[in-house]
Structure formats: structure tokens, C-alpha cells
Amino acid sequence: MTATTMMRREIDEIPAAAARLLDAAPQDRFRAVGRALGRIGPRAVVTVARGSSDHAATCLKYAIELSAGVPVSSVGPSVASIYGAALHLDRVVALGVSQSGRSGDLVALMRACRQGGAQTLTLTNSVDSPLAGAAATVLDLCAGPEHAVAATKSFTNSVLSGLWLLAYWRGDDGLQAALRAAPDRLQDALALTAAPLREELTRTDRLVVIARGPGLGIAAEVALKAMELCGIHASAHSSAEVLHGPSAILRDGFPVLALGEPAEAGLQDTIDRLEGQGARVLTAPAVTPLHRFLDPLLQLAPVYGALEAAARIRGRNPDRPEFLAKETLTV
């Protein structure tokens, strides 16, 4: 492929999509819903999501737990869609995250959460979708149309939207300031070169991605994109969990992509151990720190570019990966 792909254009639109969240209308909604969460004082949050949206929910899990001290857990959609279990969710917030909002299992779970007493909220790029209709409150991701199968700007806006809610919920002025700076910082991040990573993604057929805490959802997102775009057998683990079994195969030059700053607790120790047993540890372009909840998202921006470029070099179509569709409808 020689023409600019839809995916590449949508990667380049990430900063503009992030900037739309600063407009008056979405800010009014974030402020109102975030402050309502503060009044509710939820004892827990459950997330309703699949695929890239579930990875965004993982990013928000760590942010909420670290900021609000409220436990966050993903509920398997089949609990409602196949098994029809009744849920008991008094004073719990059910947070749906979905680009399209059209998968039946997510809709069934959101309805079950609402019937179980949860305060239901959906972040979606399709405010007229069935998932939006199943929730009491809906927030528009404002990502704009996204045509490539692989989500990029809708993923980043999912994370940013959830963080805006959290910032108003907790009255966190520092996080709000960082979020206002995010569009410009994402633009800067897109200019970073990821050529060494692109070259590795072009030739490898296997990859493990590691990160910690707020970066774990980003690691899962990178592993997913490596599979769907480049045909690489990839998986993601925390830099602690990888030592509980998976590290046994990380030898003889096995490529491991470490996301985050080496100074992050435990990450450098894991890198040293894996290199010592023969793994080949790769890194993403370094970014200037902005906020611990946003730095992994900044690092993702150039990695998206490396994945798109590697897919093309491998002769694959990043806009339309084989056997996949933009809207994945599951039960």
C-alpha cells in the first residue's frame, strides 16, 4: 500500500479529537456527571466493555483505584447475555465503554446492571446506539467518524473521557490541568520516531508487552494491535505477573516490549531479569512526563504509528485486517 491509510489519518487526528473534549458542551457534561459521582460516593465501579474498549477500561480502573480508592472490576458480558445471572449492584457505578455500542452482549450486561441497582453510564462514539439506550447517562467520546477497523482515536478519547470524569469527581485540579495540555502533548508524541520498534514489528512473529499499573491497559492495547494488524502472536502482562510463569519462555532473543519509565517501581528489575535470561527487551519512544495517568497514552501515540507502518511493510492492510470488521457483534 502506497497511499496514506485511513488508520494513519485517524492516528494523526488523535490530538484534534482530544481537543474536542475541551469544548464547552463536553466539559459541561463531564463536570455535571463527575460531580454527581462525587455525590453518589460509589462503593465500587464495574466496567462493561470488550476489545480495545476493555483496555481503555483497564486504564481507567487503575486511575480510579489510585485516585478514589474505589475498587474497579470488569464483569464478563456473558454473565448476563448467556447465563442470565441477576446482579446486586446497589451504590455501584456500571461504566460502559464502546466505540460503536452495538454488541448485544454489552447491551444485555448494561441492562442487567441497571436492573441490579447500578448507576449506569456509557462512554461511546455512537450516542444513538443500543448500549447508549441501555444506560441512564451517556457521554459522547467526540472522536469523530472512525473508519479503519483498528480503533485509535476512539481509544484515546475513551481513556481521556474517563479521566475527565475522574478529575471532576475527585476535584483534581492537577489532573484537569494535565488533561487540558494533553492535545498538544499528543501532537508532540506523534512526532517521535519509533523506527527501531517498527523494524522489530516488521520481522517478528511473537511479542510480549509488559507495563505496570496505569500502563497495563496500554500494553494490552499494543498486544491486540500487533495481532490484528501485523499477524504477530502477542500477549500483555504486568511487569510483575510476567514473572509468575510467562517469563519461562522469554529467552533466546524472544522480543519483549517494555512500556513506561524504567524508574517505575519494579519495571527495571523485571527488564534486568528478562535480559539476563536472554530476552531481547525493546522500548517505546520516551515522552516527557505529563501525569502518571496520561504518560502511557502519550507513549502509545508513536507506537500506533509503528504498528500501522509495520503492517504495510508486511503486505497487510491496516484498514481492513483479514477476518475482522469495524463492529464486532458478540453474544
From TrEMBL:
GO biological process: carbohydrate derivative metabolic process
Classification via Gene3D superfamilies: Glucose-6-phosphate isomerase like protein, domain 1 (3.40.50.10490)
A GO MF term: carbohydrate derivative binding
Ranges for domain SIS: 33-175, 197-316
InterPro entries xref list: GlmS/AgaS_SIS, GlmS/FrlB_SIS, SIS_dom, SIS_dom_sf
Highest taxon of the lineage: Bacteria
CDD domains assigned to the protein according to its UniProt record, in alphabetical order: SIS_GlmS_GlmD_1, SIS_GlmS_GlmD_2
Pfam families: SIS
Coiled coil residues, start to end: none
Repeat is among the record's keywords: yes
UniProt keyword Repeat present: yes
Protein keywords: Aminotransferase, Repeat, Transferase
The protein's name in its UniProt record: SIS domain-containing protein
